[in-house]
Structure formats: structure tokens, C-alpha cells
């Protein structure tokens, strides 16, 4: 009789991942070797992940999602892997990033800080260094966040990249981060972003006043099936929403924001004007 190791999914995120892999495999009546053949791994590797001896990887997680038909669901093995690797991130954010990597259109709005997909490494590192200084995170967590951001940006570089639309509050380009050199490079990067064929950039000026519909980060993702996912964030928590009743008003407000904001040409001119003050 085969000695089956008892799993304790409550002991760690890795153990929970392994227990879920085993239960999914058993639900299909597959042996470890049969699952391994479908995923392109060895039976010993499957056993190692199930029992927590081997940590799952992104490739492994995505392969499991393909085999178990979870690719377009909200509860993928990839999401579980991201939560293991990026546990220092806001609740809800790793799940959002999983959707972002599959989106065909990404709409961003931010106040006070350049949004992640548009940040330079130095700009992101300066923000994370300030979090460490204030005791909000450790140096290790800061490095992890910056690495995760670069990985996130790379995932948006595809043969057919998504349409990325960004409307930034004027405070994003007025608030200095990391000193003159870092800020000048960041603003130059924004201007270059606007030149790409799959992008759109507008600055919502302070003069919009109460006509600006959002007061915090709002991201909207359009997926391949044309469904829309909304992500909003507070200081301590992120929230992912796919309910039409709450997503549609955000989409409508975003369109109104785009209508009210100056054109891309005017917005880039504003960015270049601010750049002059960094040199």
C-alpha cells in the first residue's frame, strides 16, 4: 500500500497550494505520473509540490491552470503562486495583476503618484525606500515590490500589447519623488509612453476641480471576452470587482473624465513644462 503523506494546508501558503493541487488531481482520478505527463513535469516533481518539498513556480502554476481548465477564472493556481511570492502586497492586488496580464485594454487613473505600469525603476525604488524609512515595510519587502513591478511591466510587453489608457491627476507630475534626476527621467518616460501606438495619456489639471470624478486609484481592465474588471485601492486594501452594477458606473465616470481632461498633445506639453523645473 502506498504511503500517502498527510497534508496540512493551514500550515503555510505553500502547503495550501500543494493540498489544492492534490485535491484537484484526485478529483480527476489522475495519478501523480498522469498529471505530470499532462503538465510536462516528473511524477516526483508533482509529489514534491503537493507535499511542500518543492515550491511552485510561475510556469508550474500556469501549466496547472491549463490542465485543470482554470485559465480565465478568478481562482487560478497562478493567483495562489502570486500570493505566495508577493505576500507583502496589498490584499487583492496579486489577483488584479493576474487579470492585468490578460487584459486587452487597461485604463488607469491615479492621484499623487505615477501608476505602476508607467513608473521607472528608480522612481519605484524611491517610493519603496520611503516606506522602509517610515517603518511600513522591510528592505526585503521593498526590493520584492520593485522586482514585482518590473515583472508586471514586462508581462504587458507582448507581440500584440494591450491598449493602455492613462489619465493622471496633475499632482502625479507635480509631486517630486526621488529628487530632480529621478523625476526628470520619470517625466521623460511619461512623454515617451504617450508616443507609443497602443497608448493614450492625459493629465487631469487641478482646474478641473469638482469635475474630476475620482479621488483615488481606479483601474479598469477589459478582458478578451469583453468583460470589465475594476480595481480600486485604499491605503491598506485593494478590491477587485466584476459586478456590472458597480463596474458600469466606474466605466461611465472614466469616459467622462477623458472627455473633460485636456488632449494628449496638451498633456504632454504640460509634462514637458514641468520637466524644465527639474533641471
Describe, in plain words, how this protein is organized in 3D:
This protein is α/β, with parallel strands linked by helices. The protein folds into 2 domains: 9-85, lambda repressor-like DNA-binding domains (434 Repressor (Amino-terminal Domain), Orthogonal Bundle); 93-276, Endonuclease, Chain A (2-Layer Sandwich), CATH 3.30.870. It is 50% helix and 12% strand. The protein is built from 12 helices and 6 strands. It has helices at residues 13-27, 32-39, 43-50, 58-68, 77-85, 93-100, 121-133, 139-155, 171-174, 179-194, 244-260, 264-276; strands at residues 105-110, 163-169, 199-204, 218-222, 228-233, 238-241. Strands 3-2-1-4-5-6 form a 6-stranded mixed beta sheet, sandwiched between helices. Helix 4 runs antiparallel to helix 5 (77-85). The longest helix is centred in the middle third of the chain and has 17 residues, at 139-155. It is elongated, with a radius of gyration of 21 Å. The mean pLDDT is 89.
